[in-house]
Every structure is written in structure tokens, then in C-alpha cells.
Amino acid sequence: MLLEAKGSWSEAEKAYSSLLEENPFDQVVHKRKIAMAKAQGNITVAIELLNKYLETFMADHDAWRELAEIYVSLQMYKQAAFCYEELILSQPTNPLYHLTYADVLYTIGGQENLQTAKKYYASTIQLTGGKNRRALFGVCLCTSAISQLSKGRNKEDNGTELQSLAATALEKDYKQRAPDKLQLLTSALKSLRVSS
After folding, report:
1. Is the same domain home to 85 and 120?
2. pLDDT 10s digits, 49-62
3. What pLDDT score does 20 carry?
4. How does the average pLDDT of the chain come out, rounded?
5. Counting Cβ atoms within 10 Å, is residue 150 exposed (0-12), middle (13-18) or buried (19+)?
6. Would you say 17 and 30 are in contact if contact means Cβ atoms under 8 Å apart?
7. Number of domains composing the chain
8. 141 by DSSP, 3-state: which?
9. Which residue of 4, 77, 125, 129 shows the fewest CB atoms closer than 10 Å?
10. What does the pLDDT read at residue 78?
């Protein structure tokens, strides 16, 4: 790490490679190599190293999250979605993973992804006891986008009841925490054609 701090990247790389020859399962050294690649701005190498690392250490939640965040920063949303799926499988009660997975699916768009995103926003709401505003907004946004995509094609219920419940919860929360912003919320929900 001293060599890294001095900017002697090639010497640090040699030291890490030597340590990995002695113990190829040293997670700390693998992570330092990844951090070094990121510090040098070599994101492609960081992605390769993270993927290689995760082949061996599949249960490392931090590595999956790191890889997902890199993919999101590069707008590689399908790859990021896969990472968040892995995180949800390993920690199904962590609402943050449900929320970020829903955000990624919403960003990808399309009818199927929006439906799935809405389900994961709903699971975030359930896991947080209805206290996550971002998930409440996500339900409203997904339902609105789905109804726009399916205009004239599909007359089945598009989750308007869930959307209405989310809008009511948002209004209640804003009345308690930020009454001066309630008018702004109401107009935003109207623009989404949401009524509580």
C-alpha cells in the first residue's frame, strides 16, 4: 500500500502478484489490485479483476455491490441488474438491494422491466414498513409509465390501486414532515395522473 501511495503502480503490482503466488486465496490482496486499477482510472481492468475475483469469492457482497456500481456508472444497466440479482439472492431482506435493482430496471425501461421494477419497489416498501419515499415514488412512476406504454392495448388493471396507496402514503408523509412541499408533491402526482 505504501508503493501505491507513492504512485509506484508497477512495483505495487509486482508485490501483489508475488503475494498471490504465495496465497492465491488472499482476498485482501485481490481487492487491493482492484482498488489500484480503479485508482489509476483503468475501469476495464477493474471490471475484469472483479469478475475474476467473484468467480472464486461468489459470496462477497461488497464485491458484487462494487461491480454493480461500476456498471451503473458506465450505463451498463443489464450487467448491473445481474449484480443486484445476485445481491438479492444472497441477502433477500436487505431493502437497499431491492430498491437499487428496481431503479436499474426502471432505467432500462420496457413493459416487462417496468412491471418487475414495480414489484421490487413494492417489496422495498414492505421491507421498510412503508417508510421508503423513493420506493413509493417508484411505484407511482412505474405505474404511470406502464399505463403510457399500454395505452389502448391492455385494459386490465395496471396496479392503480397500489399506485393510489403509494400516493396516499406520500401525501401523509409530506403533511407530517414537509407541509410546505405538499403542494409541489400534489402537482407532481397530478402530472403522473395519480390520485390518492
Report:
1. no
2. 999 999 999 999 99
3. 86
4. 90
5. middle
6. no
7. 2
8. helix
9. 129
10. 98
Q: Tell me the DSSP string of 6-30.
A: HT-HHHHHHHHHHHHHH-TT-HHHH
Q: Assess whether 72 and 152 both reside in one domain.
A: no
Domain boundary among 60, 90, 120: 90
Could you tell me the residue range of the domain that residue 37 belongs to? 1-90
Q: Do 30 and 114 reside in the same domain of the chain?
A: no
Q: Does residue 158 carry a pLDDT above 70? A: no
Check if the beta carbon of residue 13 is closer than 8 Å to that of residue 33: yes
Query: Of all residues in the chain, what percent are helix, strand and coil, respectively (each to 5)?
Result: 80, 0, 20
Q: Which residues of 114-125 are buried (b: 16+ CB within 10 A; e: fewer)?
A: bebbbbbbbbbb
Measured distance CA(78)–CA(68) in Å, rounded: 10
pLDDT at 42 over 60: yes
For residue 82, the domain's CATH number is 1.25.40.10
CA 33/CA 9 separation, integer angstroms: 10
115 shares its domain with 148? yes
Q: Are residues 74 and 97 both part of a single domain?
A: no
